[in-house]
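Need tokens for this chain, all 402 residues.
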Amino acid sequence: MGTAGGGTTDPMGGYNPDFVEFVGKDCPVTAPAAVDNAKLPNLFKKADGTMMSKKSEWACRRAELKKAVETFIHGEKPGRPEKVTGSVTATQIKVHVEHMGKSIDFSVSVSIPSGATQPVAAIIGLGGGSLDSGILKSEGVATINYNNNSLASETSRSGLFTDIYGSTGASAQVGWAWGVSRIIDVLVDEKTAGRNDIIDPKGIGVTGCSRLGKGAFTIGAFDERIALGIPQESGTGGVSAFRVVNTNPMGPNGKSAQTLDSAWSEAQGWFGTMFGSNRSKANTIPADTHSLVAMYAPRGLLVLDNSRIGELCAQCQHAATADAAEMYKALGVEKNIEYNGGNAADPHMHCTFYAASQGEPLKRAIRAFLTHKAAPDGRIAPAAVATADMSKWLDGTTPTLQ
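Here are the structure tokens for all 402 residues:
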């Protein structure tokens, strides 16, 4: 899987050479069972109870994590449908899907910085995203504006996704992830056909803030063709670990983490229907959000947090990220993951990008995973006021994988 930190040409260390959506698709995976564990379940412990010992086991271990997340939290994400076609221009990507006698169409707008060399890397922004547009332009990265709620409503879970598959019980976030995967299908197929020298399918990032940060987080976890995830201030239903949320940690603003019940009530579509009964017994779920963080490995992940807003639970997000960073470390790509808790001196504004404290992490991630101009340089940097005590959450030690 490569040496620690990867390199400027392939930070993924040769993983996913066939560039597929789900590397472990053909791995035998047994139905995940409930557990009794107040700590974040050990990511290295396979479903059969044995521990990972080789890096080559990662694809199938990741398939087990994905199955656990689908079974207990989000519902199943379908693979590629029977027919996906579309077109790519410098201003728009069109997607047409046909499956089991049903069809849908949707499109996303594209904005390419003036003077950028094509094919360009691009960041898919849910609701446009809230990253610093000046930084993206200066780095030569295009933006793709994704209307995720047209695929699935966060309140009813209905939309274009259910027009194809019906009401499966999957979360709206799964519908959003499925839609982005179809966008990438078009980018890949049109490039193969010689009709896409505009956007580089291997230079795709995804971002969003708050509820859209939840979506960006889940989208990037599920599709292994996405080079970089940048969830911003995603809170409960996003990066925040359920088990940590349930300890009711307080933020410097005197507010506690949004509870699982509150998040469920605010927008049930953030979760699958199965989470309705599982949310009251989070310690029995054989996965947690650290499982989704780990599902990014060995790809790039930059978690942007706001430690000043207690409801977002920066401790919860730091815990999930730091736990999964142990998997990155064991795989030899520890610099491919970064967590930024923000600067305590920054204002408390939600979904405001602070270039002074977050600009450099963003540039590092873009250059490592999208434009390949520099080696990864990730770092886990929680704010002092919102640092999780990992001795409470790590379940076991990190093995040395051969």
